[in-house]
């Protein structure tokens, strides 16, 4: 990008609207992702950036273009293993009366995380149980993709076992479409993690994976503080493999208890766990 002021202005816009930090050194990325948008409007990059101040539609496109949507099926594998082997059996006991589970995929990208969980629930929930997976993201483009539930051959090649492809997908043209019975358990909502959460109810498992890395320490701490009441007292929060609450302010390390499940740290509400351990 030629003008540092244009980069500064885009970086401030992204920070204001998503809390994602686009530091100096990311100019190449901004240039690569915004040039096609500028071209589509017949503008140079700097003119396009100037236009953003008064064009909300283009601002939304810029946010969509600058979010990092990297994801894959059963990403990192071990959290899904821990979910099936430990969290799910515990929840099946604890929810034996309601027979209902609620899961939140809290930065869902194009939906591979949510549909991976849906496949596991489809296989492991006894009959008569209900489940709902709420998918949220700041990118409207990604939410459209979750709704569509369609994936290219390249995308299904990333982590999806062949048996699951056969069992849960049908071919539509050159793409693969996820089965209706999984799609109807997944709902989609636009949500900015850095802003106050709307009323979503509480969740038994929250997947907040590979998104905190894009925020500064203060925003991360704020999100983790507001996540606490979104989780049922005996629920689980899963973070990405390079994300942790250990480097957080003392109130957070005290309120989130870290339970090691196999190779995966699962975060739990410390006060609720203390109460249940003392039988209170
Ligand atoms: C790298 S993807 C992670 C996807 C998935 N959780 C996984 O682990 O594979 C990060 C996602 O976070 C979303 N995101 C970034 N900033 C956000 C914000 N402030 N609020 C909600 N979602 C955000 C991006 O749009 C993107 O889809």
Overall body shape:
globular
Question: Which architecture of the largest domain per CATH?
Answer: 3-Layer(aba) Sandwich
Order of helices and strands: HHHHHEHEHEHHEEHEEHEHEEH
How much strand content do the residues show? 15-25%
CATH classification class of the largest domain: Alpha Beta
Structural class: alpha/beta
Taking strands numbered 1, 2, ... along the chain, how are they ordered across the largest sheet? Answer: 6-2-1-7-8-10-9
Named CATH topology of the largest domain: Rossmann fold
Radius of gyration over alpha carbons?
Answer: 20 Å
List unreliable stretches of 5+ residues: 274-280
Number of domains: 2
DSSP E strands, number: 10
Q: What is the mean pLDDT? A: 93
Short recap of the structure:
Keywords: Methyltransferase, S-adenosyl-L-methionine, Transferase. Residues 1-244 form the CheR-type methyltransferase domain. Helix content is 45%, strand content 20%.
Q: What is this structure's SSE topology?
A:
Elements: H1 4-18, H2 27-40, H3 45-51, H4 56-66, H5 78-94, E1 100-105, H6 112-124, E2 130-137, H7 140-148, E3 150-151, H8 153-156, H9 162-168, E4 169-172, E5 175-178, H10 180-183, E6 186-190, E7 203-208, H11 217-227, E8 231-239, H12 250-255, E9 256-261, E10 264-269, H13 270-278
Parallel strand pairs: 1-2, 1-7, 2-6, 7-8
Antiparallel strand pairs: 3-5, 4-5, 8-10, 9-10
The structure holds S-adenosylmethionine (SAM).
S-adenosylmethionine binds at residues 18-20, 67-71, 75, 107, 109, 113, 137-139, 142, 191-194, 209-211, 214, 240.
